[in-house]
Design brief:
Blueprint: H1 4-11, E1 16-19, E2 24-26, H2 27-43, E3 51-55, H3 60-71, E4 75-79, H4 85-95, E5 99-102, E6 114-117, H5 118-122, E7 140-145, E8 155-159, H6 160-174, E9 181-184, H7 191-203, E10 206-209, H8 215-224, E11 229-232, H9 234-247, E12 257-260, H10 267-275, E13 280-286, E14 291-295, H11 298-301, E15 310-311, E16 316-319, E17 325-329, H12 341-345, E18 354-362, E19 368-373, E20 378-380, E21 383-385, H13 387-393, E22 400-410, E23 414-423, H14 430-440, E24 449-452, H15 466-474, E25 479-480
Parallel strand pairs: 1-10, 3-4, 3-5, 4-7, 5-6, 9-10, 9-11, 11-12, 12-13, 23-24
Antiparallel strand pairs: 1-2, 7-8, 13-14, 14-15, 16-17, 17-18, 18-19, 20-21, 22-23, 24-25
Length: 482
Amino acid sequence: MDNWIKKQAALAPTRAAVVDKEKTISFAQLAEYTDKLGRKLAGLDALNNKRIAILTNNSLAGYLTAMGVLNAGHTIVWLNRRLSASELNYQLNDSQVDVCLYEDQLDASQLSCRTISFSELDSASEKSFAPQQVFAAKDAASIMYTSGTTGRPKGVIQTFGNHFSSATASALNLGVTPADEWLCTVPIFHISGFSIMMRGLIYGMTVRLVSHFDAAKIQQILVNEPVTMISVVPFMLKKLLTIKQETGAQYQKRFRGMLLGGGPIDQATLKQCEQLQLPVIQSYGMTETCSQIVALSFADAAKHIGSSGKPLFLTQLRLDQNTQEIQLKTPALSPGYLGKQEKYVAKITTDGWFKTGDIGHFDKDGFLYVHGRSDDMIISGGENIFPDEVESAYAKCPFLEDIAVLGVADDKREQKPIAFVIPNEQTLLAQDLIDYGRQHLAHYKVPKNFYLVKQLPHNASGKLQRFKLRERLTSGQVKELQ
């Protein structure tokens, strides 16, 4: 494949590649800037290692730096700015990088490799270098560490072919064209954000960058700017719904919908979207598949609320007959985990299917419903309980702002469900929540204990980190609701 940056500069030189609140950069300017950045990296002697780490916010400088690394023929190792220095150093050592490019506002003082700030890079002298002429399908474009919702992360290798396949399937499903403009408010160091950047290059589409999620500011963009699509995770969607209802504002006419990922959403919220005539495309995917591989189309959304949809073009799905685990085949699938290929091989069945670790079912029309992670499933008295189902049942509970459920050991039932709650009433009693649960769930699914928390731990892509709640419980950091 041609270098995508150079190709779009030739095909659509004046079209906007990326926009933030202050600046617009065309594809021709992007090609020119990335060449200049490559010369500066060469001048700093920073191109010796195939892999280059980037630590950044959702900023124009971060976007351009990433594109510069790709244009130079190197692999981006994306670092999550929310991690501690020790967590980042684990990833730096694991990926064997010797240079990390970082945004000036972030602290890189404790990182274990050479660090170069964006301002230092910007002021560096230039040295000749040869831009990458082709993006080979099998070459690694990026290495992205799994979100770590259950433990130590693994470095997922994502090739140019993986990204291209993902973008192709997404375009065929959503009907995206170069005339679209995609609002990127999800982190670019996660697949949800980086995939938008890569789609922008492949489609010749404009990416609208925002530094962070602020519901009021995002609504103003959706009301006033020519954005057609936005990627959201459940908590973002809920915030946007709330402010939309409060203000009564209408999004501008070009807006087509929200791509929802990052975890399950309760049916009450989806019904609310339907009532507001707000198009939401539910999706299912993972870091290993370079974003979504299953999506629910606009046309099918009303009839299949709660479903993640059907497999996108290029994707095959099946369920394990015994465990109901979702298994897949797709050219968007990563070729492996960096330095841990044995863990990747363990996820491949004898006939070549990738085991996702998620449990689900198909309805009679072939639509996929995802119940949750097999690791999260609670087995209580021989019955299977999925935390997502319990959390969804409590979504309309008038006593709660939020809830998270997990299983703990129990002498009588093997495991029992417990819940961590953020109440919106000071006089809330555990019995109130038990009574509510028994009105909406089978009794064995109702949490047996409720613990008070001020907030629930999520990673940068919006996924709930249940293992952190378990750590709080084990260390006695939470108070039980009586």
